[in-house]
Amino acid sequence: MKQLIVIVGPNAVGKSTTAEKIVELCPQSAFIDSDWCRVMNPFPLTDVTKETVIENMYSLLRNYLVCEEISTVVFVYSWHGERKEMYDRVIKQLRDDEIEFQENIVILKCSEAENRRRAIADNRDEERVERGIRNTFSFYDEYDYPCVDTTDMTIMEAVERVCEVTKLKLG
Predict the structure, then answer these.
(1) What pLDDT score does 40 carry?
(2) Are 1 and 101 in contact (CB under 8 A)?
(3) In the prediction, which pLDDT does 57 show?
(4) How many other C-beta atoms lie within 10 A of the C-beta of residue 38?
(5) Which residues touch 103 (CB under 8 Å, ≥6 apart)?
(6) Which long-range contacts (CB under 8 A, 24 or more apart) does 87-93 make?
(7) Rounded CA gap, 109 and 9, in Å?
(8) From the first residue on, what is the mean pLDDT of each consecutive set of 10 residues in the chain (171 residues)?
(9) Cα separation of 107 and 168, whole Å?
(10) Is 3-166 a CATH 3.40.50.300 domain?
(11) Which of 103, 91, 130 is nearest to 11 (CA)?
(12) What phi and psi values does residue 104 have, to the nearest 5 degrees?
């Protein structure tokens, strides 16, 4: 059965970096960054743009999940605000369309100091760093999914830990 690994967590925690490395090391895999699904200028969060983002996420996930050459899809997403609701709609539609996959959700976390350091290293301005800490840093504490604290980990250690909790075999 196809595996959908969903990596969630605060802004700048390292979701995309981790996902890219997993896909690099895992044959027959694909990476979807949810950011791609909402690149608009400007991006007002309206009913119309939400539906566009939902359709974009659904289409990308569906296309990879039905592709015979792909066995693992790694999807990164931030659930704060209305985004968890949007994600749930996409997953429900995939299941309603009888697309078979095993969903494995993993939360990445790190210390607040490390989260700030990573956000700054990612060239985010101070306002964006503070907004990310305020809106996303503690948001995932209420969820009971496997969690990987990447504070003192290398990227390979984070990848190995995510693979361990999702039972994904590399290479």
Answers:
(1) 78
(2) yes
(3) 96
(4) 16
(5) 4, 6, 91
(6) 87/6, 87/57, 89/54, 90/54, 90/57, 90/58, 90/61, 93/58
(7) 6
(8) 96 94 97 87 85 96 98 93 92 98 97 93 89 88 95 96 94 76
(9) 16
(10) yes
(11) 130
(12) -125, 115
Q: DSSP string spanning the chain?
A: --EEEEEE-STTSSHHHHHHHHHHHSTTEEEEEGGGGG--SS----HHHHHHHHHHHHHHHHHHHH-TT-SEEEEEE--TTTHHHHHHHHHHHHHHTT---EEEEEEEE--HHHHHHHHHHTT--HHHHHHHHHHHTTGGGG--S-EEE-TT--HHHHHHHHHHHHTPPP-
Residue type present at position 61: L
The alpha carbon of 24 is separated from its chain's Cα centroid by a whole number of angstroms, namely: 16
CA torsion angle 77 79 84 86 (round to 10): -50
91 contacts 79 by C-beta, under 8 angstroms: no
